[in-house]
């Protein structure tokens, strides 16, 4: 006899495990199914984000940033080092340890909130009276029955046609995070196809550790989703660091062999080029994970991209079936998945969960960090919105000078008539943390004057946010 639950969540990434926990908090009997395994075959909940995405990439970025600071900037502080070395195997082991802490933390949260966890692959079997039958296929296979189903199966890295991932030479984000695990060394030459978040972050990690990094981008513009002024500042900073970024390229044949990878491509001028590298990271986007879900068994509607079709409430084409995160429309961001997850759990419980998709922040954890929320200047121009802009450089901020990191600026965009904040864009130190103030302000429909009138601690990087708000009215105090 199958076990019955009020809610069954398929997937334990940021969308899945948060949905399960919130539903349990609301008094529902919840099961969560996830198939991720650690190296020993045990459960590793957390999805792509925890296992081969957000968390491990930040661990490597932190380690490589420490190395770069020690190698090139400690001298400015009077700190001298000799025979500086990076133990790549130890760096990777630390990253693995950070991942395991997060895996174990999620399992603890399931236990704390009385969520029943099943380690295996979840898939639809059939519709039954009052719900759906879900199969769990794993070391211990069983069948569950749920009144409400939340699909949170995430996404997978998109492969280039003719160049499948082997995770040895041609790498997805997974393989990129394991470079040097066995060799103990950084690659001498690293190629990256795609200058999005993953490409820039992984390129930065290995550039800091001595690799010659070349990034090939098919689009003619750099960071097209970001504010144009921010993108230009970022490109200038990355060029100075030694990241070689080629825009407007057309990638041709890719050959992988014992000596590495050869990429034939045409540059923006139409000239035939060849790139020879030890490793090639392909980061050209991600595709929704719906294979093996057995959606056809219950008639669950999928889109052209293989995504699950949902409405603005995350309801699918089937009654009692919901979907959140990377497997549905919208940006593939962990925090977007979490917000949808909470909203769906609350809707199931009869509450009124809400997600404002216009206020989802974006962050790139390079150095300098890049973060933004709301509209870009080019979007406002295209939409014919009258606006005012104000910016403040970190080079005029006392805390940034003390940190020794004055690259970048904070930029505010506000409505020309009402002064309501329409967008905030930050490039510079701790942009990922500073953007939160903008999110709060915009959620309460604050004006730039509101931020300009609020007392910010001195000395702090957040003063640059206040100063940028003052700049909207052309009255900065420190620049």
From TrEMBL:
Keywords: Cytoplasm, FAD, Flavoprotein, NAD, Nucleotide-binding, Oxidoreductase, Redox-active center. It holds the Pfam family Pyr_redox_dim. Disulfide bonds join 49-54. It comes from the Bacteria. It is found in: Cytoplasm. Residues 360-469 form the Pyridine nucleotide-disulphide oxidoreductase dimerisation domain. One of its GO terms (cellular component) is cytoplasm. Its EC number is 1.8.1.4. The keyword Oxidoreductase applies. Its main location: cytoplasm. NAD(+) binds at residues 194-201, 217, 285. Coiled coil: none annotated. Its cofactor is FAD. GO terms for biological process: 2-oxoglutarate metabolic process. FAD binds at residues 58, 122, 153-155, 326, 332-335. Residues 5-341 form the FAD/NAD(P)-binding domain. The keyword Signal does not apply. GO terms for molecular function: dihydrolipoyl dehydrogenase (NADH) activity; flavin adenine dinucleotide binding. The active site is at 458 (proton acceptor). Binds 1 FAD per subunit. It catalyses: N(6)-[(R)-dihydrolipoyl]-L-lysyl-[protein] + NAD(+) = N(6)-[(R)-lipoyl]-L-lysyl-[protein] + NADH + H(+). InterPro entries: Class-I_Pyr_Nuc-Dis_Oxidored (IPR050151), FAD/NAD-bd_sf (IPR036188), FAD/NAD-binding_dom (IPR023753), FAD/NAD-linked_Rdtase_dimer_sf (IPR016156), Lipoamide_DH (IPR006258), Pyr_nuc-diS_OxRdtase (IPR001100), Pyr_nucl-diS_OxRdtase_dimer (IPR004099). The active site is a redox-active disulfide bond. Belongs to the class-I pyridine nucleotide-disulfide oxidoreductase family. This is Dihydrolipoyl dehydrogenase. It comes from Ottowia cancrivicina. The gene is lpdA.
